[in-house]
Amino acid sequence: MPTVSFTRALERFLTAPTATVEGDTVGAALAAVFASRPALRGYVLDDQGTLRRHVAVYVNDRLVGDRVGLTDPVGPRDEIYVLQALSGG
Amino acid sequence: MADRFHVATRKGLFELVREHGTWQVADVQFLGDPVSAVLADADGTVYAALDLGHFGAKLWRRDPAGMWHELAAPVFPPKPADATDDPHPWSLGKIWVLEPGGVAERLWAGTMPGGLFRSDDGGQSWALVEALWRMPERRQWSGVAGGEQPGIDTVLIDPRNPGDIRIGVSTGGVWASADTGASWRNINRGMYAEYMPPERREEPIAQDVHRLARCGAYPEIVWCQHHNGVFRSEDAGATWHELMAIRPSKFGFAVAAHPRDPNTAWFVPAVKDERRIPVDGKVVVARTRDGGRSFEVLRKGLPQHHAYDLVWRHALAVDASGERLAFGSTSGGLWLSEDGGDSWTMPEARLPPIAAVRFAAT
Are the CB atoms for A34 and A22 separated by under 8 Å? Predict the structure, then answer.
């Protein structure tokens, strides 16, 4: 199962520990995390469920391509990183 | 008089308290984070809206015991397929203003990109006022500050009837609802927009209402700092007349209305429009006490040499007594008056850029 880890910048606002979850796309893996931590969703996704403009998501060393549908595939040994983009803030 | 007020800044929320005749910073929260709006109830409850650069708009509440908790922020509903040509995003940009609704537990939130939200449970949950958002005219609202999103900068609740609402939109005019938000009308007449083509300059929806302020004791009296001047209405925002006597300039963002005297209001004029700095580098407050026929320029205690402080639309406040005022600037300047604006003092603090100043309800 893929793991999802979050920027430590979130720690000031809420708890966001690394999680190992079911899911074969970025969207499915994130949804699995948000199912147990619903408050986290609004920090990562906007109201329409797309990645926030200044949030970057990597699968291993690769920036995700689909920021709207979150359809980038992930495998069972992949690591998903949710980070601050170097913009905004 | 209110002995407590909050300052929402680019880098945190500051609470100032009056003790032994002087104002001190008594508490700092969210240090380092942009705070876009604040509201403090008489019972000690405080609401603070954050505008996080990476993680979006958030809402927090301090309970009367002093503990802060995050609340659910307002969320726009899923964007329907027939709204693909909507020029504005269906996603919360930031909470620009928070207002009590006049009944227990009710709050209103005015936001960018122009959504009005209502809570009936003290901010725990929010619903978009869809009747306003889905009006076709809403798509004609336009962005402030050079093409960004439109915003609802003011929510006025009639103290005699909590279902009677006015909102100010920058840019989009003054809108009214008599049924707690179920239906809306664009009501303003008498304003003009120099930034529009001549044939459209008097269109109600084209008016850039920087901020509205209402006299609590005489709710029909509403003042407006507009992009092109200052205006006053004697019929709760329907018809407006320009106050030509304003000085030293007619541009500005903020206005405060005296809570009991319908003829007294304060403005903080600036050089319009492309420059947005105080006239001649002097920070002043303009006060009228005769319904806008004349204005005094108040400057005692305010910087008069090379001061380039701009005061945003939510950064001038008056308390329930009408005697205490406070305002804050883009340069972090913060000034207080205890005599209706005749003289001003600066608390011992150099703050980050200030978005909003607000006295606690008493």
Answer: no
Domain A3-84 indexed as CATH 3.10.20.30: yes
Contact A83, B55 (CB under 8 A): no
In a domain, B34, yes or no: yes
Nearest CA in chain A to B29: A12
Cβ of B70 and A39 within 8 Å?
yes
Q: How far is B69 from chain A (nearest CA, A)?
A: 10
Query: Is residue A86 within 8 angstroms of chain B, CB to CB?
Result: no
The boundaries of the domain holding residue B109 are: 4-77+88-359
Give yes or no for a contact between B19 and B25, defined as CB atoms under 8 angstroms apart.
no
Of the candidates B52, B70, B92, the beta carbon closest to that of A47 is on B92
Pairing relationship of beta strands A79-84 and A3-6 according to DSSP bridges = parallel
| Count of structural domains, chain B | 1
Show residues of chain A in contact with B76, CB under 8 Å.
Answer: 47-48
Q: Is there a domain that residue B83 lies in?
A: no
CB distance A13–B79 less than 8 Å? no
Interface subset of A 39-58, CB within 8 angstroms of B: 39, 42-44, 46-48, 52, 54-55
Quote the pTM value.
Answer: 0.95
Could you tell me if B61 and B68 are in contact, meaning their C-beta atoms sit under 8 angstroms apart?
yes
Residue B82 lies in a domain: no
Rg of chain B, C-alpha, whole Å: 19
In chain B, what residues touch A47 (CB-CB under 8 Å)? 75-76, 90-92
A62 touches chain B (CB under 8 A): no
Print pLDDT tens along chain B (362 aa): 889 999 999 999 999 999 998 999 999 999 999 999 999 988 889 999 999 989 999 999 999 999 999 999 999 999 999 898 999 999 999 999 999 999 999 999 999 999 999 999 999 999 999 999 999 999 999 886 545 799 999 999 999 999 999 999 999 999 999 999 999 999 999 999 988 889 999 999 999 999 999 999 999 999 999 999 999 999 999 999 999 999 999 999 999 999 999 999 999 998 776 677 888 889 999 999 999 999 999 999 999 999 999 999 999 999 999 999 999 999 999 999 999 999 999 998 999 999 999 999 87
DSSP string computed for B55-110: TEEEEEEE-TTS-EEEEPPP-PPPPPGGGTT-SS-SS--EEEEEEE-SSTT-EEEE
CATH code at B345? 2.130.10.10
Contact B334, B354 (CB under 8 A): yes
What are the structural domain ranges in chain A? 3-84
